[in-house]
């Protein structure tokens, strides 16, 4: 099994009209054995910017701590919160610094820019960025997620439709992956704030 | 993106053998047996079939649970079904469960270097008026063990303690069914290669009863 599949897990983010949503599963495993069903892999970096990380969980935790540290210094020096596009560049360069001994984690960034438009991007473990205006995926069932998202996505969804679409896309993909699942958390980010919902999913 | 690749460079989910990670079990009660299994077949970590049927009929009242390589176990059970059909023609009576189990053992042991198959053979026959002792386990390697209840597959490792604690001698058919349902549900909940629906087959002198529990009907703990 590849090192990126050791712990399992997946993250997907989708854009709507002036809103974004990011969702992940809750499984933490050691290869095929499940050891926790409450593991968090999506983290709030600012009020309107979320970072999801899949891959080896120790690197997910390390990168989360590292980016919190970097954002605190950024806020101290700049006196403002970081923009999503700037944060994406920060993540990309942090990963590429370790080009020949990388972190085994693949991030997904979802946020709202200052004018309210959504920002989505995904990266591989070396920091190669792919910006999208519809959806981005990462994790052990990424191929399945591409399929379900491509099928269910429509442009300009409102927050409720976005929640439903993202939730169903993720749950359908989880049904086809052994090492993801055991619960789903969805965060919907709008100008007004962030709503977090948990979905009741198959626990197998 | 880094993805597990086979030697030819194709993604693992295209080339890996179909495997039934699996949780299977069978329990004997006075007058019959209950067999249970999950329904997940995998190719690497991709779930190739999430509603597969791992409880395969050998005769009207003898069944086997299959774990390991899907291809190997399908081939073995096809052979055993064929041999049992020939045996019925020669003997004129339905075969004993022990006979079916011995056939499994013979195939699995003689070809042990080339096979990856763990089977549980259970059913009802009319010897001694349907005696207890109708559950036989043929693990990988080809040994044959008769047990009051047998568990197998990768998911079984998670339920040894539960089964040892909850099994009692002299359980009724309904108690056995509840025992199997809960044990398979627990295994599915912890093992990545087990999941889907719980398939259950109850065999006694009156015939065979097949049930399936999915979604909300799967016990949660």
Q: Helices and strands in order, then pairings?
A:
The complex is a heterodimer of chains A (204) and B (221).
Chain A: E1 10-15, E2 20-25, E3 28-30, E4 33-36, E5 42-46, E6 49-55, H1 57-78, H2 84-96, E7 105-112, E8 118-123, E9 129-132, E10 135-139, H3 142-152, H4 159-174, E11 184-190, E12 193-199
Antiparallel strand pairs in A: 1-2, 1-10, 2-11, 3-4, 5-6, 6-7, 7-8, 8-9, 11-12
Chain B: H1 12-15, E1 18-20, E2 24-29, E3 32-37, E4 41-43, E5 46-49, E6 55-57, E7 62-69, H2 70-91, H3 97-110, E8 117-123, E9 135-138, E10 145-146, E11 149-152, H4 160-166, H5 173-190, E12 198-204, E13 207-213
Antiparallel strand pairs in B: 1-4, 1-7, 2-3, 2-11, 3-12, 4-5, 6-7, 7-8, 8-9, 9-10, 12-13
Helix pairs in contact in B: 2-3
Descriptive notes:
The complex is a heterodimer of chains A (204) and B (221). Chain A has 204 residues and is an alpha+beta fold. The model of chain A has no long low-confidence stretch (mean pLDDT 96). A 5-stranded antiparallel β-sheet of chain A has the order 10-1-2-11-12, covered by helices on one side. A 5-stranded antiparallel β-sheet of chain A has the order 5-6-7-8-9, with helices on one face. In chain A, strands 3-4 form a two-stranded antiparallel ribbon. Chain A has a single domain (3-199), classed as 4-Layer Sandwich (Glutamine Phosphoribosylpyrophosphate, subunit 1, domain 1). Chain A is built from 4 helices and 12 strands; from the N terminus they run ββββββααββββααββ. Chain B contains 5 helices and 13 strands. Chain B starts with 11 loop residues before the first helix and ends in an 8-residue tail after the last strand. In chain B, strands 1, 4, 5, 6, 7, 8, 9 and 10 form an 8-stranded antiparallel β-sheet that branches. The mean pLDDT of chain B is 91. Chain B is an alpha+beta fold. The A-B interface holds A 1-5, 8, 29, 31-34, 106, 124-125, 140, 142-144, 175-179, 202-204 and B 1-4, 13, 21, 38, 40, 42, 45-47, 50, 154, 158, 188-196, 215, 218, 220. Chain A: Keywords: Cytoplasm, Nucleus, Proteasome. Chain A: Belongs to the peptidase T1B family. Chain A: Component of the proteasome complex. Chain A: This is Proteasome subunit beta.
